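2024-03-11 09:14:02 DEBUG pipeline.ingest accepted 1 chain
2024-03-11 09:14:02 DEBUG pipeline.ingest length=498
2024-03-11 09:14:03 DEBUG pipeline.predict start
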Amino acid sequence: MPAPGRSDLDDGAPRYQLLGYLASGGMAELYFARVVGLAGFERHVVLKRIVAHHARDPEFVAMFLDEARLAAQLHHPNIAQVFDIGRMVDSYFFTMEYIHGESARALFRRCVAQQRTMPLHLVLTVVAGAAAGLHYAHEKRSPDEVPLAIVHRDVSPSNVMIGFDGAVKVVDFGIARAVTRSVETRSGVVRGKLGYMAPEQCKGEPLDRRCDVFALGIMLFELATMTRLYEAESEHGIIEALAGEAPRPSARRPELPAALDAIVARALARRREDRYPTAAELILDLEQLAAQERRTMSPLALGAFMRDVFGARPEPWAELRAAADATGTGERLASAPTPTPPADGLWGSWQGALEGWLAAGGDGATAAARPDASPHPTAPTVHRPGAISAPPSRRRRWRWGVAALAAGVMLAGATRYVTRDAPARALTNETGAAVTPPAPRPSPASATLEPPRVAPTASATDAVAPAPAKGAPRRRRANAAKPAHDCGDPDGLYPPCD
């Protein structure tokens, strides 16, 4: 048994390897990653982290951690699961379930672009699945059986994911309200997407689960008619539209049944007292409508429709391996280095993985990802399959500067190496006259060089002796000094030994 306070799990702690950049919003970034463990354990996840400039905002950090803690308590087939939460040197992150699919917003846009409608029973499948996940969150209690009073407050097509297998999951509880949150919205501050807000939410009034039911009613209307509920382009126009009655779905798509009009009208009632009191009651009416239409709400049929609209898409890990094999980097991807966790424990291992990925240039293929990267209503930039790239990084900019400096040093060294034996150029003195540089000293290693000549001792005879005629043989003078080669070198091949 381990000693109290000691953990024997460090060696088997999961370590995250970033495989690709998915999306970014105003406040957070999403990465596709995998966690590896002992005996070949492997799981692919989405890693969400705060962008650097928001990591210094204590209020935002607290809201980010509240989202992770709250979502980690929710275990339901229609809610994206949160696995881990951690801290790095200058930011925070958490990992959550990867959903191989698209958002309801992306499905809406693709159907509009293809000029096609969505079968009613599939619309009911999507809305009923989202309602089931939200009802579970609304009913959630703490371990001591205290209701958490969770309200999502940002239900919209962007935050409802639809998998290519037909699974429907609610994501992004970033601005959800709950009694356990450490940061609450200030009075009068409105959070959420205006086009999916209930009237009381726009007024900044206290909220309950019925504002989520109102947002589900808008989703039901828009997916059934493939038109936006509010056609106004300005915020002022949307607020004015909220004051009136919502149009009937059959007015936009005549073949829709009257029973659907009644369900939408009740879900979109302006007074919250007139709406469905719970999401569960909305689900019951949706199921009854499907039975009346003699259709079945089927996740399998929904998955087939998704594949028909978006085409067949491989799972991201298969796409990564295929891209790696095509570029000859498969071995590097398969054996990506796993950094050792720093002193702050398990969560610090992500920092090393991120640094290793950035050092490798951020290579990798993409995966389908959910398009909303943060609890911020601003639409994020999404990188779709085949076009994934690393996010802008200061690290990459200074790395290019270091590379340029190193290239300059290498070029200077190569130039000096090439020109080191070039003949010396003529020099000029201060008056401009040419000065011949001294000849280099002969190398002692060459046996073909002439022995050094020692100047003879001057004498009066030598001073007046006429120079020999040109071409006449030389005669050794008797008074010439003997070369000083007395070091065992009779041939005079080496310099004198002084």
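2024-03-11 09:14:41 DEBUG pipeline.report The chain is about 35% helix and 10% strand.
2024-03-11 09:14:41 DEBUG pipeline.predict end
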